[in-house]
Amino acid sequence: MKRGIIALLGCLLLTGCAAQESTPVTLTSESLHDGTWDAVITHTDAGEDRSPQLTWTPVEGAACYRVFMLDPDGGNWLHWKSGPLTQTQLPEGAAAPETYVGPYPPAGQTHTYVVCVAALREDAEAPGQLDAANDGLTQEALRTALDTPPGNVLAWGTLEGRYTVRDER
After folding, report:
1. Domain 22-164, what architecture?
2. What is the DSSP string of the chain?
3. pTM as predicted
4. In angstroms, how far is the first alpha carbon of the chain from the final one?
5. pLDDT in tens, 128-158
6. What pLDDT sits at residue 15?
7. Other CB atoms closer than 10 Å to residue 149's CB: what's the count?
8. In sequence order, what are the beta bridge partners of 32?
């Protein structure tokens, strides 16, 4: 029994087949104040549909990063689905219109919008349709889809904020 455990541990150490837990990415935004996203990032009468400013910690070994914005209160509505990025800072409005549609919750409702940054060993195609509800596309499902082959997600970070559409008349 003892010999079997030692052999198994040796296999795991030598082959790297042990499950690797990815490290967190520290993610900040100048477009988020006291837990509320600035109106400028929204797709509303008060907004300019500009992607939020983002900065995150570089991850050693990452070939690229992918950025996503999900609205879990709106059926996992996907507001941002970036292509592969190599930079770790994005100015406000950096996302192309075909990759970003700002938050637009129903009038009077507050929704939470979660920005996710994945540091990838190699680029991976992400699931989900932009500007649509994506049943089952939770943060965990997104992370799992990007982690192909296993160990591809080197690090993951999230940043949450709320937005409420006020009566803009």
Report:
1. Alpha-Beta Complex (3.90)
2. -HHHHHHHHHHHHHH--S--PPEEPPEE-TTEETTEE-GGGSSSTT----PPPEEE---TT-SEEEEEEEEGGGTSEEEEE---B--SEE-TT-S-TTTB----PPTT-EEEEEEEEEEESS--PPP--BTS--TT--HHHHHHHH--STT-EEEEEEEEEEEE-----
3. 0.86
4. 74
5. 999 999 999 999 999 999 999 999 999 999 9
6. 34
7. 8
8. 37
